[in-house]
């Protein structure tokens, strides 16, 4: 697979970029070099490599979610700028 100058022009149009002819040529060469480099991966034998989503094993490092005692509502409401019926009262964000 290779990138043509018309491919670069199409992407530039979608991105609303104005490119000079020299820039179009430069980007065509650079993108083709990237694709050529990526094609080297086809030569690798990956038969014994398990598919992964991360390069390193990921583990959950969070603590267990354990319910504990809460603060009394009257102490919590001391931090509220405005309160109504034991709930924080905030300005409406929807009309």
Automatic annotation (TrEMBL):
Q: What is its EC class?
A: ligase
Q: Which UniProt keywords apply?
A: ATP-binding, Ligase, Nucleotide-binding, Protein biosynthesis
Q: Which reaction does it catalyse?
A: L-glutamyl-tRNA(Gln) + L-glutamine + ATP + H2O = L-glutaminyl-tRNA(Gln) + L-glutamate + ADP + phosphate + H(+); L-aspartyl-tRNA(Asn) + L-glutamine + ATP + H2O = L-asparaginyl-tRNA(Asn) + L-glutamate + ADP + phosphate + 2 H(+)
Q: What is its EC number?
A: 6.3.5.-
Pfam short name (any one): GatC
Statement: the UniProt record of this protein carries the keyword Ubl conjugation: no
Q: Give the source's domain of life in one word.
A: Bacteria
Family as reported in the entry's similarity comment: Belongs to the GatC family.
Q: What does this protein do?
A: Allows the formation of correctly charged Asn-tRNA(Asn) or Gln-tRNA(Gln) through the transamidation of misacylated Asp-tRNA(Asn) or Glu-tRNA(Gln) in organisms which lack either or both of asparaginyl-tRNA or glutaminyl-tRNA synthetases. The reaction takes place in the presence of glutamine and ATP through an activated phospho-Asp-tRNA(Asn) or phospho-Glu-tRNA(Gln).
HAMAP family registered for this protein in UniProt: GatC
Whom does it interact with, and what assembly results? Heterotrimer of A, B and C subunits.
User: What is this protein's name?
Assistant: Aspartyl/glutamyl-tRNA(Asn/Gln) amidotransferase subunit C
Which organism is this protein's natural source? Answer: Paenibacillus aestuarii
